[in-house]
Amino acid sequence: MGNYKLGSLEELVVLIVAMRYDSAYSVGIAEEYEKQTGKSINISAIHTVLYRLEEKGFLESKLGEASGQRGGKRKRLFYITPVGKKAIDEQQTLREQLRKQIPEIAFQWNS
């Protein structure tokens, strides 16, 4: 495994960015997070995570087209990078390896 460490919130944000592909902007990401997890999240928390992931090289961003709905303001769109793809692949592999090592007896509850 490489050094592609992601925290749980970071992992979810990268997955949502990849899932939304060309419509991954902060408000949409926050809405999707709430839809998928059932938990609300502050938009400033999403911004913090997005910019941190961009600094780490897991995401990149660019300004989208101006929209009349937003008074001509452009959305910052985020995209997963090859490094981000590698990171989520490694996270999934690690989780699967750990899960396979859990003995079946661990799932048998004694009441």
Helix/strand layout:
Blueprint: H1 8-20, H2 26-37, H3 43-56, E1 59-66, E2 74-80, H4 82-100
Helix pairs in contact: 1-3, 1-4, 2-3
User: What Rg, in angstroms, do the CA atoms define?
Assistant: 17 Å
Shape: elongated
Proportion in helices: 40-55%
Number of strands: 2
How are the strands ordered across the major sheet? 1-2
Helix/strand/pairing class, anyone?
alpha+beta
> In oligomeric terms, what are we looking at?
single chain
Helical segment count: 4
How does the major sheet shape up?
A: 2 strands, antiparallel
Question: Concise description?
Answer:
The chain has 111 residues and is α+β, with helices and mostly antiparallel strands. Helix content is 52%, strand content 14%.
List the defining traits of the structure above.
single chain; 111 residues; alpha+beta; two-stranded antiparallel ribbon; 4 helices; elongated
Structure description:
- The chain is of the alpha+beta class and 111 residues long.
- It is 52% helix and 14% strand.
- The protein has 4 helices and 2 strands.
- It has a two-stranded antiparallel ribbon.
- Strand 1 (59-66) and strand 2 (74-80) form a beta hairpin.
- Helix 1 (8-20) packs across helix 4 (82-100) and helix 2 packs across helix 3 (43-56).
- It is elongated, with a radius of gyration of 17 Å.
- 19% of the residues are buried.
- The model has no long low-confidence stretch (mean pLDDT 90).
